[in-house]
Amino acid sequence: MPSVKKIRPPKTVFPAVLATFSILLSIAIIVFSPSEAKKTAVTGSSTTIVRTSGSAEGREAETNSAPTETRTLFPEYSPEAPSTGSAGLALRKSGARPGVRGTPLGAALPGNGPGAQEGKASLIIVIDDAGYSLEQLQAFLDLPFPLTIAVLPSLPHSSETAARVLAAGKELIMHQPMQARDGQDPGPRALRLGMSAGEVERILEENMATVPGIVGMNNHMGSAVSEDAAIMTTVMELAKRKGIYYLDSLTTSGSATREVARRINLRHWERDVFLDNTPDRASIIHAMDEGKKIASSNGAAVMIGHVWSADLARTLMEIYPGLVEEGYSLSSIARFMMNQSDPEFEDDAGSGD
Fold first, then answer.
1. Quick check: 77 and 108 in contact, CB under 8 A?
2. φ and ψ at 9, to 5 degrees?
3. Which of 108, 170, 212, 287 is 20 to 30 Å from 123 by CA-CA measure?
């Protein structure tokens, strides 16, 4: 029988196959190796960034049930438990703008969007004249960011208004009526020129009882009383004893509150801008722009609007996302003070505007 010669494959085939297999295996490892993944989902006006987490060694492949951390642009405001007056509040000293020595608000607080970086300015919005209409009030309680509501005392709806403000997680202060120079009626239970210290204290105490839960007080009208150093001394000494702050609405350039506060070593706040002197949308936006300039310069700005202003709540809601994108923190006075590092409280009595 003739012999059969076996044909052997060339010696170069096996190395080539092995090299090809190694290359394919490397590609597979690169493609399918789990790494920290980032997804972006857009729902309505909110953008949510979802980051899949994993351990440094042997991270599991991404699954729908993977643990995530979520950050939402333009977050909705989750109401916190209402704060109460405390003598420990870092009340702002007379004459000093609320300059920021640290981060105005913690990163987790409402109004702190992704654009709000460390050291960015705070916008503090106060809504005056609440207490007459619960319907007008609701539009402001629905706003998804921190807000201060100033409630007129001793009105039929004062206590109910105060309760709703606190339930909505907003900051509550008393809007104390005071005599004006032009003869306008400031309303019931007002402070008037010629009152004794005892009368002033009694009215304030009775008014405070109708708006329980306040952390501060500001003046309603008051261009006459605010210039009376004796009355304002009584008012601000009571505020100091109660552990609440005083906000001067600055209805007169001759206000005595700054000097009184300096003398009794009490910090106080002053209004920077009225938002709705002309209550149309364009004027409100212009006033807000003025407030933003002041905040950018001084660290914060206090802007006062009014609950009866038909376009104010709607305009604030409209411009809110843009404010967050620009990096502004929306805050309230007590929130700002509690988050402001201020080791120089006793040393900056002489600081001014």
1. no
2. -65, 155
3. 212
Task: Give the helix/strand (H/E) hosting 174.
Answer: strand 171-178
Taking a C-beta distance cutoff of 8 angstroms, is the pair 248, 259 a contact?
no
CA 317 – CA 323 distance, rounded (Å) = 10
- Per-residue pLDDT tens for 319-345? 999 999 999 999 999 999 987 744 343
Kind and range of the H or E run holding 305? strand 300-306
Query: Checking phi first, is residue 269 left (phi over 0); if not, alpha (psi -120 to 50) or beta?
Result: beta
Amino acid at 109: L
Give Rg (Cα) of the chain: 30
**What per-residue string of b and e applies to 21-46 under the rule 16 or more CB within 10 Å gives b?**
eeeeeeeeeeeeeeeeeeeeeeeeee
Q: Containing H/E element for 274?
A: strand 273-274
> Which residues of the chain register pLDDT less than 50?
4, 6-7, 9, 12-15, 17, 27-118, 341-353
3-state secondary structure 37-74: CEEEEEECCEEEEEEECCCCCCCCCCCCCCCEEEEECC
